[in-house]
Amino acid sequence: MTKILIVGIGGFLGSVFRFMLVEWVHKILNNPWYPYGTFAVNVLGCLLMGFFAGLAENKGLLGSEMRLFFLIGILGGFTTFSAFGYETLALSRDAQMLAAMMNIVLHVVLGFGAVFLGYQVSNLI
């Protein structure tokens, strides 16, 4: 139960940070034509995931609760794209290039396809 609370509190904070950053970017850019806010969140989330996962794995700086809170909770709530990026890096680092490329293609193609399908099904209701 403690682990769930740790991840849940971190997830709440990450979601709030995501909302605030997206709103700020869209305000600064005066409601742009491209979703720069989401793009900024995804890139920043990936940068932070790589940095803190590297510190945790290579330097042993984060204990298990801090990893749960920060990597899974905060960054997971901020963007799951960072987890996707990290998992793809881990596959490529382990010389599993086919799996890494499949991860990229399947997430993008099937993810977009699922959104499209869900949207089309909602029009039938």
Shape: globular
Could you state the order of secondary-structure elements as H and E?
HHHHH
Number of strands: 0
Estimated structural class: mainly alpha
Topology, please?
Blueprint: H1 2-28, H2 36-59, H3 64-78, H4 81-93, H5 97-124
Identify the notable features of this structure and list them briefly:
mainly alpha; 0% strand; 5 helices; 125 residues
Protein architecture, described:
By secondary structure, this protein is mainly α. The protein has a domain at 2-79. 86% of the residues lie in helices and 0% in strands. It contains five helices and no strands. The protein has helices spanning 2-28, 36-59, 64-78, 81-93, 97-124. Helix 1 runs parallel beside helix 3 (64-78), helix 2 packs across helix 4 and helix 4 (81-93) packs antiparallel against helix 5. The longest helix is centred in the C-terminal third of the chain and has 28 residues, at 97-124. The mean pLDDT is 90.
